[in-house]
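Tokens as discussed.
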């Protein structure tokens, strides 16, 4: 029996390691491109609103396709959907690199690339379901933290690599991201295992398809519906900041692409440190519900404080506080969604949550850049902080709907558990 448990633990570690590498390489490319976007768009004459549309286009396609990708991953398997996602990223980066060749249609090429990347961005919707497949319920908060650490590392190393490559021009950054996508596809095709058994995929194929009725049935579940609203609010507020941060530091501190890339590196370092090292112990002590509320509280405070300091060190400190709040809120919310959605529809539940998140990331950049252009550079942050405070109040109610888990802080394994939740 002990041998069986050790073999199962080793299999989980291998699967988590392969997923970690896949998501990390995917997010490295994403992190390289993100600080580049506003400056690359400005070379084609894009306005603040145009930059907002560029950010929002990715999320608009996620809104349409995340539930589809989640359902397809339930029925066809997580592995093929993730491989298709990597291929879509590769095509998008190549289109980014080719944009200057389109002349006055260069911005349209950037937009087409973002649309395609958003339509195939399975890492955001399928990777959390993969974690839920591999780990038992008691381990998922740490597993989501591990996934968040991969995202954070992508935001540490991606902007750093992009900042260096940016010395050779915007095209060099896009080509570097494309090269990473090729490497990712080769490694994932060779090493990434399929976590779903044929029996589970067959059961999913007999379930109801992705139709408005199926989504309404999930939405009528009060705890799950409340989590979706919270996911929307927190993501909307964060995207108000994310889409205008580069414009803000350009306006306030005179930053260019290189300096903005290093700011993203700083934010990513905090994300990695908190998600990789603090989420597991804090979840054991506080539980997923309190951990989520603590993250939302930090986000509310930091967004309100962020635009006020005139000095760069104070601004950087507020940005670190913001990153810490996101690092606590994101994995705990994903763990709560996975628990409420249930085993059979993990992919569909995660896809639905990311559809809500994508709607927020569609509307957030449009609202953020509009506020930046018409109300002033500080207002995307102030509006986000006020809405995040409202989300905190609503979150207290939703956590009561969900109810306490069976054991004391049952969101993570007992003390001393090893293996699946450890960083690979």
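Sequence:
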């Amino acid at each position: 029996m002990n041998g069986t448990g050790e073999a199962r633990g080793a299999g989980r570690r291998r699967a988590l390691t392969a997923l970690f590498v896949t998501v990390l390489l995917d997010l490295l490319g994403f992190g390289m491109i993100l600080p580049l976007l506003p400056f690359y768009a400005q070379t084609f004459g894009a306005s603040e609103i145009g930059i907002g549309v560029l950010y929002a286009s990715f999320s608009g396609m996620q809104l349409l396709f995340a539930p589809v990708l989640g359902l397809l991953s339930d029925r066809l398997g997580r592995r093929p959907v993730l491989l298709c996602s990597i291929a879509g990223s590769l095509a998008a980066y190549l289109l980014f690199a080719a944009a200057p060749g389109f002349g006055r249609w260069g911005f349209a090429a950037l937009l087409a690339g973002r649309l395609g990347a958003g339509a195939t961005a399975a890492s955001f919707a399928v990777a959390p379901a993969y974690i839920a497949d591999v780990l038992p319920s008691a381990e998922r908060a740490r597993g989501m933290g591990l996934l968040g650490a991969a995202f954070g590392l992508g935001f540490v190393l991606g902007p750093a690599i992009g900042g260096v490559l940016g010395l050779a021009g915007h095209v060099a950054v896009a080509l570097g991201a494309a090269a990473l996508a090729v490497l990712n596809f080769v490694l994932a095709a060779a090493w990434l295992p399929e976590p779903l058994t044929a029996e589970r995929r067959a059961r999913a194929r007999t379930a109801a398809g992705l139709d408005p009725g199926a989504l309404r049935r999930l939405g009528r579940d009060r705890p799950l519906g409340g989590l979706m609203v919270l996911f929307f609010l927190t993501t909307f507020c964060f995207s108000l900041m994310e889409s205008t941060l580069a414009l803000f530091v350009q306006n306030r501190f005179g930053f260019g692409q290189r300096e903005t890339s290093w700011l993203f590196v700083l934010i990513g370092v905090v994300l990695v440190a908190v998600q990789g090292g603090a989420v597991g112990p804090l979840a054991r002590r506080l539980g997923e519900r309190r951990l989520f509320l603590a993250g939302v509280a930090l986000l509310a405070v930091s967004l309100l404080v962020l635009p006020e300091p005139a000095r760069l060190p104070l601004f950087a400190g507020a940005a670190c506080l913001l990153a810490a709040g996101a690092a606590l809120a994101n994995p705990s919310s994903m763990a709560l969604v996975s628990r409420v959605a249930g085993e059979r529809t993990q992919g569909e539940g995660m896809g639905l949550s990311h559809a809500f998140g994508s709607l927020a990331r569609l509307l957030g950049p449009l609202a953020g850049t509009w506020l930046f252009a018409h109300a002033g550079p500080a207002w995307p942050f102030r509006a986000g902080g006020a809405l995040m405070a409202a989300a905190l109040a609503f979150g207290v109610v939703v956590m009561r709907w969900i109810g306490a888990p069976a054991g004391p802080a049952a969101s993570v394994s007992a003390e001393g558990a090893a293996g699946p939740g450890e960083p690979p």
